[in-house]
User: What shape does this take?
Amino acid sequence: MRLFNKTSVRLIMVACVATLGSGCASTFDSINPLANLEPWVKPYERSNLADPIMSMNRNPVALAYAKHVFESREGARGADGGAGGGCGCN
Amino acid sequence: MRNTYLSLAKARVVPTVVQVVVVAVTKRQAATAIRQKLNTLKVTLCRLTLIVSALFVGAANSAVLPTERADVLYHAYSGDGVTIDGPSVLLRKNIGGKVSVSANYYVDTVSGASIDVRATASPYEEVRKEKTVGFDYLNNKTLLSTSFTNSSENDFEANSVYVGISQDFFGDLSTISLSYSKGWDVVGRRGDESFEEEADRQKYGLGFSQVATKSLIVGFNIEHISDEGYLNNPYRAVRFLDATTDRGFSFATEKYPNTRSSTAYSINANYYLPYRAAIYGDARTYSDTWGIKAQNFKVGYIHPIENDWVFEVFIRHYKQDKADFYQDLFSRPDEFNFMARDKEMSSYTGVTAGISVAYEWQFSQTATIKKSAVHFEWDYMKFDYDDFRDATAEAPVGEEPLFGFSANVLRIFASIWY
Assistant: This one.
């Protein structure tokens, strides 16, 4: 089996586009229409987001078990763990 | 962690101080004294606000190590003639401000027999033990994670490694993450010492999340999974017409392809309500090279009362279309190259409703244990199959009632944060 198949290449391309879109690559700022976009939620406005009830993984030990039960009973799999769900929900 | 937030607060206060000083020295002498006092007050208030805000938003900044905590859980699943229960222990400890290590020990004790087994074999009992160790490294806004998992039971051995990277950007409002994992399975069969097969698995994940407003977080995930090797369940069988038997049918070993690739896309959102409560939802669509297509969605509501109680309810709906090579009843044992009658390959719908309650104790932030909690969570699951019949029922072959079952799932656990 090849290490990178068609879908994997697509995922990597999407990641590259997202990274450029973030304006992280200053080289591309002049041609990036999103470069002038400023973060619109200030640090002092994030108290709601910081509340534990906003976390997507409030109790990891219970979430892992629930995920295991669904995987055992269903044919579908993947993209259900909030992978990369950083976002202020730690 | 707290030092990181204080540093952020200071970095944002300094420009304010400079502005204040510049403004003060350019005004008339007569107003200078009053303005200086007002500005000093403003700066003090600003500094306090930012420090307090930074403390409150600590958990909102994803570029931090996972929370240090320990959990001891008892889980129990009961449905379709099967009981599965056991403990799970999860420990996480940070080392300095950049490294976090975790360990999980999980046990499934399975007894009974599901409909797939009841139709062809006897009830059984077995134990599965799973061990995971994890390591996270934080560098500025980048979190690197890796873990190793071993799962062992008498007829199955699985090992897997996981690596992931998560990066915050855009004022910490956005997070992108990539992950890869690889697994190696060795499949055995009870009562047949000579049976040993292997299967490998690779998973590629991409996640993105965005703080949309001061009360809304949204995200999406993509995961691609590729399997290669022996992908059958060695205990499940296909049913075929057999006029030589009393029941009119017999069973034969399933035949699966030796590769499978799947891709799943999901979106999710968490919204903080005008009062202290939150609603959340997620949706996923799935397809694979075996022809299975599935969609599921879930919505939930979390309602804390004071700082002690946290209540949560949710409902989840799942719908699946069968694999191309699935049939409830075949005409002969070698009718097709690939044949399956595993009910998880059929067309069906599932609904799960859950309720949970937690009671929390808050302690001083300087104490060794900062918080503790006990949790009780109960899910009720119901599955209805569209083309999987109950082969144990007394009825003409192929006219048995469609199968369905319900299950209860319990999670009872205690947690401490330190």
